[in-house]
Amino acid sequence: MRSPPLAGGDRGGVGSARISVLFKRRPLTLQKLVLIFCLLIATATPALADPLPAPEDLQKTLAADTATIGTYGLSAGIYTLGKDDLNVFYAVREYKPAWSFVGPENAAALHSFIDSISQTIAWHGLLREDYALDEMHSLGTSPDSDSRIKLELLVTDTLLRVAHDVHGDDADFAELYPGWNFKRADTDIPGDLVRAVAASSVNEYIDGLMPKNPAYSALARDLRRYNEIAIKGEWPRIDPGPILRPKDHGPRVGQLRARLIAEGYAAQAPAGDNKGYFFDADLAGAVADYQLHNGLDGDGNIGSATLEALNTPLAVRINQIRANMERWRHMPEDFPPARTIIVNIPDFSIDIRDNGQTVYRGPVIVGQVERKTPFIDSIIRSMIINPSWHVPEKIARADILPKLRKDPHYLEKLGFVIRGSDSDPHGKYIDWKNMADDEFNFHLRQQPGAMNSLGRLKFDFANDFAVYLHGTPHQELFKKNARALSSGCVRLRDPELVAEILLKGTAGDWNAGHIEDEVAARKTRWIEIKEPMPVSVVYWTVFPGEDGRVEFRRDLYDYDNFLIENLKAGLEATDSEQKPEIDPQAPANRL
């Protein structure tokens, strides 16, 4: 899927010849967007003075300070031309102008260029107000030489900026998100644009910068659809009240039906129900379908979680799509690899792929909002059978000390020992009840066993947060739909199945029976995985489902909103204090 085409007046270094631009447009559809540039015809016009900037004037302007080059006041802030990229671009071209947009005879071409680049910006979820497009219109109608220079530079700078933004160069995500070390390969934007202009392939070039994963194009289509919904206005809200169930009747059912119709989940009310007030079987099916695509319990009832999702403003959904597209633009080109583990935090899920195919998909438990699971890009190299848990000091103070105040035998009951306290390993003779938080300076270790918080298996990988994948004795928690319950680690429902996949090919014939035998032996054992497995912990709140339709998840850590607000404010000015914080707890283990 390609982005909408750009139309323009590329001169391609034709010298002082006047350029006519012919546009051949095809309708843009959701199924296929046809890439069109423009047909250039150079016609000598000796009787007319060349309305284009002279190379020496462009070189002189670019040698001046940034303010002289051009600074434009926009509704979203200040737009300043990127001097470094412009110098690279024009130096390669020997400072010859690249565009022919000045003058009334080129007004239509300039209008078409602005219109098409606006479509490109919208397609990628970028904001029109971040680009000085309106200034192009006014500069294009001005006859003075200064305006010609500014328009030339502004057109080039806009394309450079769009190229950088589509490539994900607009922010350092490592400064925004804890643990982010994903990275797209660097590319020579100004140099590549020079070559694209010379080959009249600017559209192909911009198109080639966007992420190749089909999920990105799917999100772009979804963004377009939700923007089209927004043209009609905000979708209906459902009044608060008791749980709505099938066979209920009343105005709130009518609101529910209208809300689902707005997003394409329900048909009109059946004949005889003019107001759509009856909660019939078809509406119940539409509700269940909506719940399925929003990560909710598909019971067909409108409880608090479903009501909250339905009443999420349309603008928030649009911004969620934009935020996920932005994160995709910062991912490596080859993501995900054919063999990998992907944990999606807001979906509470793990997906293991081999040769590009899912071989296991299951539920996980992730970090609480106060103890966020970080982004991870690492490799699982080993597994521990019957692990011990060395409790981080902060977790011991915050979680275990309050329990000890209520029950001084808590450590013994759950298999904890105090390291270095052989005479009183379970703290039976310590006055926990009157101990202040800052007086707790004990190092606790939970021994392997049925009560161990790590479960029976632990999977290690390098990271800065002492986070890992592990089992849990609390299988009942997987019955919950929202599972942000851990202190940062990722808890697995089926660690044995994960182990069997990861240990495939490792010496020892590690089938399910062998793994169970080793666990039953109750001895701690470290196993090196023969074929280490890449693991990524990501944050997708919007993604295409198995049926190809868009799925939304709750913005658990407020990362979508955080990103959109920073993009709006200008990422270069982002205060590092705004970055969501995760205490690494290193070198202690997290749970």
Descriptive account of the structure:
With 591 residues, the chain is α+β, with helices and mostly antiparallel strands. The protein is 34% helix and 15% strand. The strands form 5 sheets. The chain has an 8-stranded mixed β-barrel. A hairpin with a 7-residue loop joins strand 12 (457-461) and strand 13. Residues 10-49, 571-577 and 584-589 have low confidence and may be disordered.
In terms of DSSP E residues, the strand content is 15-25%
Number of helices: 18
CATH class of the largest domain: Mainly Beta
The Cα radius of gyration reads: 30 Å
**Biggest sheet details:** 8 strands, mixed, barrel
Q: What is the domain total for the residues?
A: 3
Helix content class: 25-40%
What structural category do the secondary elements indicate? alpha+beta
Total beta strands: 18
Outline type: globular
Mean pLDDT, rounded to whole units? Answer: 86
Q: Report, as a whole number of angstroms, the end-to-end distance.
A: 42 Å
Structure characteristics:
591 residues; alpha+beta; Muramoyl-pentapeptide Carboxypeptidase, domain 1; L,D-transpeptidase catalytic domain-like; 3 domains; three-stranded antiparallel β-sheet; 15% strand; disordered C terminus
